[in-house]
TrEMBL record:
Residues 1-35 are annotated as: Disordered. Pfam families: Ndr. Gene3D superfamilies: alpha/beta hydrolase. Residues 17-35 have a biased composition (Polar residues). This is Protein NDRG3 isoform X6. The gene is LOC119636589. InterPro entries: AB_hydrolase_fold, NDRG. It comes from Glossina fuscipes. Belongs to the NDRG family.
């Protein structure tokens, strides 16, 4: 039988005579495909190699003609031979992929269809997000200095002063801008600010670019820091406030609420500690305060502050956010002033509150615990979860709520949407701007559902 080569037949090896055998097959089954393919290969080879001499062209022609019935395929300026089956196809059925420098449309025009599924790009879930610009809250606030019995403190006012007042207090190593800028720039919170006025209180010497406090300055205790808020309320003529504090600031607001329960309408406290410092906390913070006074902001102090705010392994959750706070601790904090605040915090006394069952003889619930509505919040990854549980056990369950938000330690930065929604519902439940907050909540929930349920599918062509 004749041997198949490139879709045709030739005579048997012994049939070299010009009669019968070869003449029979020549007129009917002589392959014609390779001739045109060889011509195309010659043209491609000329384009790839470029201008060559006549001798090189003759060598190339001889090489292409002496292939013994196999097709020549040019890959990266080299010649490879692939055997073809009876149907004329190469044994390797893999299609050549499109050049990386061309788009899918150009690849189709060039005649090489891409086989990689990643070449077909689909853009999903296009939505608009507002950046949490930290500098914008400073520009939007009215900066004031309020005189107290323990020196002046810095207060930043954000919003219309004729609206109900929200008073914030920051945590260790931070100030009002670094604590609340990202949260109050969140879209839902910016809509909330149209109906409230926020008074950001900063502890003495903790504001941005604060000078070092004098050596003879006696830093206020935690109770004295809480008493300074009375001067703030008197200065701005506030009759009642809504407290919003985190960490050390939450402890200060709780002390102020115990001393002046008629001045506080409600409180949202994050990572609030109601007990005195333990031995481990006291030891670590004592060393931190000593290093801050003598050596400045050391790496050990930065590591402790990062653990205090973000818990363990924060880089695995949000590396960029961690770098922002590390840079702030290194460059934006006065070490001596921070050491004074830390020293006051670790020497705090217990709040001395307890949950008293209703009707217990000889006791009054209003005198033994906080009587205003309280939302007690912590992050699931925060190192202060147990402290908030203890604090929740000392509150009246009829007007307090404990909430643990998942996948975060620093709730304000890592889960602002969940915290903003919880805070909105908390204020709405207490009767603050009910109609406006309901409308704002419906608008925000509708936008969130539309962004999550309907994904915009866009195919680049």
């Amino acid at each position: 039988m004749p041997q198949p080569v490139a879709g045709g037949y030739i005579s048997l090896e012994g049939s070299r005579r010009p009669s019968n055998g070869q003449a029979i097959y020549q007129s009917t089954t002589e392959p014609t495909g390779p001739t045109s393919m060889l011509e195309s290969m010659k043209r491609v080879l000329g384009q790839v190699v470029g201008s060559t001499t006549n001798a090189a062209s003759h060598d190339t022609d001889d090489l292409l003609n002496n292939t013994n019935g196999r097709q020549a395929i040019i890959i990266s300026s080299s010649i490879h031979f692939r055997e073809r089956d009876k149907s004329g196809k190469t044994l390797n059925n893999k299609m050549p992929s499109a050049p990386s420098a061309h788009t899918a449309e150009e690849a189709r025009l060039l005649g090489t269809m891409p086989v990689d599924p990643l070449d077909d790009i689909e853009l999903r879930s296009v939505q608009l997000q507002f950046p949490n610009a930290r500098g914008s809250i400073i520009d939007a606030c009215d900066q004031r200095r309020v005189t107290t019995d323990k020196g002046d403190i810095h207060v930043a006012i954000q919003g219309d002063t004729s609206k109900p007042a929200i008073l914030t207090y920051h945590d260790l190593g931070l100030n009002y801008a670094t604590s609340f800028a990202g949260f109050f720039n969140f879209p839902l919170m910016r809509g909330l600010l149209e109906n409230f006025c926020v008074y950001h209180v900063t502890a003495p010497g903790q504001e941005e670019g604060a000078p070092t406090l004098p050596e003879d300055y006696i830093y206020p205790t935690m109770d004295e820091l809480a008493n300074q808020l009375q001067f703030v309320l008197s200065h701005f003529g506030l009759k009642s406030i809504i407290g919003f504090g985190i960490g050390a600031g939450a402890n200060i607001l709780a002390r102020f609420a115990l001393a002046h329960p008629d001045k506080v309408g409600a409180m949202c406290l994050i990572n609030c500690v109601s007990t005195q410092s333990g031995w481990i906390e006291w030891g670590y913070q004592s060393f931190n305060a000593r290093f801050l006074r003598t050596k400045g902001m050391t790496q050990g102090v930065i590591d402790y502050l990062m653990w205090h705010h973000f818990g363990r392994n924060p880089e695995e959750r949000n590396h960029d956010l961690v770098q922002v706070y590390k840079q702030h601790f290194e460059r934006g904090v006065n070490p001596t002033n921070l050491a004074m605040l830390i020293n006051s915090y670790i020497h705090r006394n217990d709040l001395n509150i307890a949950r008293t069952p209703t009707g217990t003889p000889g006791t009054e619930t209003s005198a033994s615990t906080l009587k205003m509505p309280i939302m007690n919040i912590t992050g699931a990854l925060s190192p202060h979860v147990d402290d908030t549980v203890t604090f929740n056990g000392r509150l009246d369950p009829t007007n307090s709520t404990w909430m643990k938000i998942s996948d975060c330690a620093m709730v304000l930065e890592e889960q602002p949407a969940k915290l903003a929604e919880a805070f909105r519902l908390f204020l709405q439940g207490e009767g603050y701007a009910v109609g406006v907050l309901q409308k704002l909540g419906r608008k925000f929930s509708t936008a969130s559902q539309s962004n999550s349920s309907s994904h915009a599918e866009v195919t680049l062509q």
